[in-house]
Amino acid sequence: MKKQNKQIVSASFKRRLKTSAKRRLNATQIILLGFILLILLGALLLTLPISSKNGGFTPISQALFTSVSATCVTGLSVVNTGAYWSTFGQIVIITLIQIGGLGFMTLAVMLSIFIKRQITPRERIVVAQSLGLNEVGGAVRLVKRILIGTFAIEGAGAVALMTQFIPKFGIAKGIYYGIFHSISAFCNAGFDLLNGLEGFTYNYTVGITLMLLIIIGGIGFIVWDDIVNLIKKHERLSIYSRLVLITSAVLIIACALLVGMFEWNNPDTLGNLSVGDKIYQSIFQSVTTRTAGFDLIGNTHMTDSSQLICLFFMLIGGASGSTAGGVKVGSLCVLIIAILGCACGRSEFVVYKRRIPGDAVIRAATMFVINLSCGVLGGILVAVFERIPLLTALYETISAISTVGLSLSLSPTLSLISMIIVMILMFFGRVGVLTITYSIMLRQSLSQSCIKYPELNLMIG
Q: Which contacts (CB < 8 Å, 24+ apart) does range 247-253 have?
């Protein structure tokens, strides 16, 4: 009888283990949950009196909005970061930016390496997923390179900025400002403590340093790894890295030319500047529009043509596996190649003598349509609730879902419902619409993946 009872208990225990294993969170769900917990912790800290300069409690809506914007490395803000938040609050914000930019799983791996803890296969899968890798192999090695590279680049950027900040603010404040703005620029966050870099608008050392940090952070960790292998092992750059570097350069030049052309004689932006300053401001605007969010030119005063151009480039964003947002440069490349291929009547899409899989085209198109649709829908809702022009609202919502941070001075005036819409868009933009959708629809996807239906011929065009 006792033996029978033991067998029953043993069978029951095994069933519980099996059920528990099934209920374990997958990689995307862990990433999703991690970002949510980080945002809530940041919001809690920012509500405390120690976080504000006036020593009072910050309304939860403002604290939560700032926490979402910092964690999702966006840069939209309902209060002036330098004027409202205390040093403690600013440190909370820059910590959220650093963790959000690198990914909390990357920092978790760093901690495991530091305490010499063995990294489990499950953790390697989550890390690979968070970095946008298709394979698990080499994920930890890449994380080590990312951490070393990140702190080296941010450190170099901070030193360059300190040379300009220390003479004006003193040693302690100059060092602090250098570190803060270097991290913010590298993580493509766009938070600054100088009210739009006031006093350094035409400082080329500050501007060029910020642009280099933004570009390096936005090309992606995979491209970094390829460049390191190119320098150390003389290996050729992968096709992906070549596409990212070439496309990024083309986008920067194209946006700078268009903004410069439309703003050249605008007295509110570039019209009264020297030729050199006009070129410099146009290039800076081009770089920052792709997800950084620093505003030198004054986006509020730009022409409608320039604002529409910036909307398009904000939507594109940076590269996959980077600190930048948007639909990503790789997706744009795939879509352009597919469109040109279809226009030429090709059934296969080829780049550098390599065929692009059909599912890659579908994923790129899906990401573009979802991001654009969410941004436009959010813009329409904000325009209705705030009773403002649609272009102004779209600038805010596209900026939010692409984690850019540029605004037409709308954020501080948003009502609670509009703030919630913008926060949702920022979260979707950072974590990824497809990641969230995959996490929610996982069971349906698995159950339907084995079902094959007959093909349907449809007339298109």
A: 247/329, 247/332, 247/333, 248/215, 248/218, 248/219, 248/318, 248/319, 248/329, 251/286, 251/290, 251/313, 251/316, 251/329, 252/215, 252/283, 252/286, 252/287, 252/290, 253/286
| Residue 392 CA neighbour count, 13 Å, CB half | 16
* Residue 224 burial by Cβ neighbours in a 10 Å radius (0-12, 13-18, 19+): buried
> What does the pLDDT look like over 150-167, one tens digit per residue?
889 999 999 999 999 999
Q: Which two tokens stand for residue 263?
A: 């703003």
Percent of the chain scoring above 90 in pLDDT: 50
User: What 3-state DSSP class applies to 24?
Assistant: coil
CA dist 363 to 259, 355, 372, 400, Å? 30, 16, 14, 21
Structure tokens at 428: 């979707």
Largest Cα–Cα separation, the chain: 95
DSSP state of 356: P
Amino acid residing at 403 = T
Separation between Cα atoms, residue 148 and residue 167, nearest integer Å:
29
**Tokens 């043993």 appear where?**
10
CB-CB contact of 385 with 414 (8 Å): no
- How many whole angstroms separate alpha carbon 149 and alpha carbon 228? 10
Q: 350: part of which helix (H) or strand (E)? A: strand 350-351
pLDDT at 284 over 50: yes
Q: Which token pair is 316?
A: 């594109």
Angle at 284 between CA 148 and CA 216, to 5 degrees: 15
- Grouping H, G, I as helix, E, B as strand and the rest as coil, residue 120 is coil
